[in-house]
Amino acid sequence: MRITISGPPGSGKTTACSNLSEVLGLKAVVFGKIFRELAAEKNLTLGQLGAIAESDPSIDEMIDSRILEIARENEDIILESRLSAYMLTRNGIPAFRIYLDASPDVRMARVGLREGETFEEAHAKTVERQNSEAKRYMMYYGIDINDRSVYDLVVNTDDLTPEEVLSTILDALGVSN
User: Which of 82, 164, 175, 176 is buried deepest, with most CB atoms within 10 A?
Assistant: First the structure.
């Protein structure tokens, strides 16, 4: 089974992806890691690389073509990225598409904890990153990142533990936990 997991920074995507991968025994590919690695290789912050990507579509095109390539080659895979559900839908590739969300305060607290930043630092960087991504996705693909109509399951993770998020996903997939 092909599964996509999307959502904004701090929504719990990577944790859910890892937990789901472990339970289902499916390989998981986290595309945010590719973007982070590219930023690190170029000695840039995520915000700086995002700003460059606003005028250089090749960065997003490389990542997004890789999403499609991996999806086409693997019927049993978990793909975690902001655009995976949109890309697979547009290209007629079947998948169960999951969107995780959380309130801005919860997300920024999680990002700050993960990155070792204050809430204010996490908020500033995350808002900058989200704005850059929203601009690029609309500019390059005509995708409104806030359009959730492509998703089969939308979960607000504010008050859920990672185990509860996993259980919610497994229930939606019809898989016993």
Answer: 82
